[in-house]
Amino acid sequence: MQRFIKGISVYDYGDPRDLPIVFIHGFAFSAAMWEHQVAALSKRYYCVTYDVRGLGRSEIGDGQYTMEMFADDLFFVIESLELDRPVVVGLSMGGYIALRAVERKQELFRALVLCDTKSEADDDAGKLARAQAIKSINRDGMKSYAPFLVSLCFSADTAEKRAELYRQAIDEVIGQNPIGVKGCLLAIAVRTDTTAGLSKIDVPTLIVVGENDALTPPSLMRSMKDKINKAEFAVISDTGHMAPLENPLAVNQVLESFLANRVSA
Predict the structure, then answer these.
(1) Residues ≥6 apart with Cβ < 8 Å to 127
(2) Tens digit of each residue's pLDDT (9 = 90 or more) over 88-143
(3) Tens digits of per-residue pLDDT, 170-179?
(4) 171, 183, 163, 224: which is closest to 61 by C-alpha?
């Protein structure tokens, strides 16, 4: 079912009486990236996805976003749907949102899953790369920027062996509103560093990373895992930055095991 909550396009699947899971997608995609996880998990869990502000079907507004605004949107979705301490699953930008939300209001969450993401804020080189991306979109549009972004997100094997998936990802990014995309780039560039808060995380946590992720490689995510008390760590083979799309079966197995063994209703 789709609904709009304060301008955010929200989708829910399964029985609302079951343990809730909220999935937050990566930049510059949409809630659709979680389709395989929702299909597998909604038989036992109440799965909620949503399009981050500025992307998918959510409102664009003025394109002036911050990570604090994105965290507020997550809180509003949880409150509006009356979710009782959901598990939050975030990939890349979705992980930034989840980490900041847990840093602000950890008591709202039952467990945390961080996929292909990091706690560190952008350094100067990272900020300049975001600025260059905005300049590229202004100059050449989304049709030029989308193939570049997707090439960073997917492994070379995926691009070669799963051409249809790769093409679909490019088409989805091309279809995003450039104002929303640039707003997300600004929010990511000015986000706070949540590394200091990792040691304070006191909910069951799972770290998931693609074996060939060049943006947030396994070594970086293992370092994050080591800062979180009793966190679990899983490397997904034959994948890049988009593990839930590139190897959904393996990601689903890891999620199902974590939920069954570490998360109680």
Answers:
(1) 189
(2) 999 999 999 999 999 999 999 999 999 999 999 999 999 999 999 999 999 999 99
(3) 999 999 999 9
(4) 183
CATH code of domain 2-262:
3.40.50.1820
Contacts of residue 53, defined as CB under 8 A and 6 or more positions apart, other chains included, come to 7, 8, 59, 61, 65, 69, 70, 73, 180, 183
CB-based contact 96:155 (threshold 8 Å)? no
- Establish how many alpha carbons lie within 13 A of residue 12's alpha carbon, considering only the half-sphere containing its beta carbon: 20
What is the Cα–Cα distance from 244 to 234, expressed in whole angstroms?
12
Q: Count other Cβ atoms within 10 Å, centred on residue 152.
A: 12
Query: How much is the pTM?
Result: 0.98
Q: Where do the structural domains in the chain lie, given as residue ranges?
A: 2-262
Return the residue matching tokens 């950890």. Answer: 106
Please report where in the chains the tokens 């006191």 appear, as a residue: 202
